[in-house]
């Protein structure tokens, strides 16, 4: 398949790095932090109970689904209050969470592939999560990072895709959105009028008759290869 592309928007969690190890680290770090700074909270909310509380807070505050940081702060405040801890500790607990959240281990192909992709086209990070590319050390590959909290709405809402396209100065039909999530990334971007690339690292079957992803690879290196191969055919790729 061949079509002109002038820019790329790229998902982060489970596209550049796996999120599951980050989630496990966050739970461990918060539990250790609470054991040191608010033992009654750690006793009342060990890892499994803290996870259940987080899920309840998320479910009760769907209006904040675009702001995962705010939801996490609410969870920590609730845990401290319900355990008889000091709610003023919530900010420090959040800082411990955020440091752990930004300790990422990229997929083996990701960093080299990202550099190759960014050499062809302007790349913008488009995420519902709260990772910070500056802290992680990858911001140099991106024109900008647009998060759901900053925008005020999360993928798969069309507005966040359109906001990224506007900042890139490129029409949606000439932007390729790259991500792992079927609904939030591929279906959402397609319905917003973007081209789509599904990064399917675990061999899932595409569940929809329509829309279909324009491109489908099992890693980012394969997308970089595709861009290399098509740079000679599309000046918009070659000259970016």
TrEMBL record:
Acyltransferase among keywords: no
Protein name per Swiss-Prot or TrEMBL: Putative hydrolase of the HAD superfamily
One Pfam family from the record: Hydrolase
Organism: Luteimonas cucumeris
GO molecular function term, any single one: hydrolase activity
Keywords: Hydrolase
Recorded superkingdom: Bacteria
